[in-house]
């Protein structure tokens, strides 16, 4: 297992053209998947790239929520704070997923190693 893992090969061609393309593609896939929700719910797809780039609709949603929060609190930094909190939460989630995958890989390697030794 390499220490540095590249993005999924299927999306690499998208990120070469410009930033945010892979996130926008993932968001459009989510829209197609959850199209039926639009009849009864407000649905905004949120997709992020490995490097942390967000899709356009997610950025607009966070900015809109920040504006509404600013209207209540009168703190012009609300959108920035919200974006930072969400970014940290997403990175923690990604870190947790990576940690669990790494642990699974180490356990699998150990099992194979000790099975071969005995």
The residue ranges in which pLDDT falls below 50 over 5 or more consecutive positions are 1-5
Helix content: 55-70%
Coarse structural class: mainly alpha
Structural domain tally: 1
Biggest sheet record: none
How far apart are the first and last residues' alpha carbons, in Å?
Answer: 23 Å
Shape: extended
Order of helices and strands: HHHH
Taken as a percent bin, the fraction of beta residues is: under 5%
| Overall mean pLDDT | 76
Strand tally is: 0
* Rg on CA atoms, Å: 19 Å
Secondary structure tally, helices: 4
What tags apply to this protein structure?
118 residues, mainly alpha, extended
How would you describe what is shown here?
- With 118 residues, the chain is an all-alpha fold.
- The protein is built from 4 helices and no strands.
- The chain has helices at residues 9-17, 21-33, 56-73, 78-117.
